[in-house]
Amino acid sequence: MPRAKTKAQQKTLDTAKKALSSFMYCYPELSRHGKLTVFYWRGKGTKRVRIRDEIGTKGFSEVYWAIHENRPLPESALTTIIAPQPARKSIAEKPTLGWLINQYTHSTNPQWRKLKESTKKSRNNILNLIRAQSHPSIDGYTFADWPLDKFSPKWVKYLRDSRIRWEVTIEEGEEVEVMSNTESANSWLKVLRALFKWAVNHSGLDIHVNPTLGISAYPGNSDGFYCWSPEDVEKFRNTYPIGTKERLAMELLIRTLQRRGDIVRLGRQWLTKDSQGRSIFKFRQEKNGGTAKAVTAYVPFFDDLQQIVEATSSAGEMVFLVSERGTPWVKESFTNWFRDVCDHAGLPQCSAHGLRKAGIVELIRQNYPKRQIMAISGHTTEKQFDHYARSYMRQHAMEQMLDDYNARQVA
Q: Which residues lie below 8 Å from residue 28, measured CB to CB, with a gap of 6+?
């Protein structure tokens, strides 16, 4: 019976697993003396290789990629092969999808390095799932082993559709199957598009065909996130009075029109003056941050919003919204917290992102020009802007038509 691990040993293992999250097929183990050891192992029937270099060092990365890509090991590498077993035969000596993914996510790839850490993490998670996906044509093989010259549009569709789920719902008294999880399916397609777009444009790779071309994403919810109604906003304000952190969060979201990633950073460090000496926020938005697509937002610090900030004792000095520990929010944690806040107010259909849409719609109702609203929200095209205001603008067009019709009847 294996000996139970101490808390310190378990912590060592957990830390090592986290550090190895971007290294596929690497597994940390503790010897009976508590020494941490890392093995590279692709599964039953393959060699189990010990990597002696310390995790995080240049030597570790060099040995890992040499093993992973089946290249000769560096002369400096000291590795031990444990329990040698016949390695399974490759179905082809040509480059595989797993090999291409490794090239794409390698630290020397400038296209990968310029991505935000959150984007890298998200793409890595999807790419790891794609690599591990069992291939239906040959038992025991995954898509990591599939040759690139056999990776056709058929397999792009297969991977996309592997995420689709079917749920039974009741419509007009009858059971109906409804497709779900399309967002995940579209995410897989999006990542594969980025992978092959890079591969085709990379001069060092002999890849000339992009198998994702012409493959469509599944249509999603055309109206996107639920847009708060004026009644929803009023109900929230009645639940959380001025001075509460919940009210401050809501007012910042609806008045500044910013995404959650910018709301959790908003504070006095971004304050400046406009040409007439009035307080405004000026900052580079988090979305596409550090790339040519990044947008600078110019956001008025309205007088009534300033008063709400001043009335909130929990507001931070440099960052207005802080957690219970007094530290700035991580955007994902803030979203979860605000989700609970909305539920407590009896608004389960509402979300933080829906307030951005509600703020835009309110300014449209007040007849502010699109370009003025877009300067605050950071939208760069009217197509993006119209996506947020689609429902209201349809209703508004109908009301204008009805007004014109009634006017003609009177005439």
A: 13, 16, 17, 20, 36, 37, 38
CATH number for the domain harbouring residue 245: 1.10.443.10
Residues 6+ apart with CB under 8 A from 270: 281, 282, 283
CA-CA distance, 316 to 323, in Å (whole number)?
10
- Do 74 and 101 lie in a common domain? no
Domain total in the chain = 3
Residue 209 included in any domain: no
Q: DSSP per residue over 179-210, as a string?
A: EE-HHHHHHHHHHHHHHHHHHHH-TTS-----
pLDDT, tens only, 210-219: 999 999 988 7
Counting Cβ atoms within 10 Å, is residue 174 exposed (0-12), middle (13-18) or buried (19+)? exposed
Q: What is the pLDDT of residues 146-164, one digit of tens each?
A: 999 889 999 999 999 998 8
Q: How far apart are the two ends of the chain, measured CA to CA in Å?
A: 93
Q: Could you give phi then psi for residue 231, rounded to 5 degrees?
A: -70, -35
Answer yes or no: do 382 and 239 share one domain: yes
Residue 218 lies in a domain: no
The residues facing 384 across adjacent strands are none
Percent of the chain as helix, strand, coil, to the nearest 5: 45, 15, 40
| Residues 255 and 394 both lie in one domain | yes
Q: Are residues 288 and 372 in the same domain?
A: yes
Q: What's at 139, amino acid-wise?
A: D
In terms of domains, do 253 and 375 share one?
A: yes
pLDDT digits (tens, 9 = 90+) for 372-396: 888 888 887 777 677 666 666 666 6
Torsion sign across C-alpha atoms 298, 229, 250, 240: positive
Whether residue 74 lies inside any domain: the answer is yes
- Give the count of beta carbons closer than 10 Å to the beta carbon of residue 386: 12
Any idea which residue has 């956001």 for tokens? 299
Do 112 and 106 form a contact (C-beta atoms < 8 A)?
yes
Note whether residue 58 is domain-resident. Answer: yes
Q: State the Cα–Cα distance between residues 113 and 159, nearest whole angstrom.
A: 26
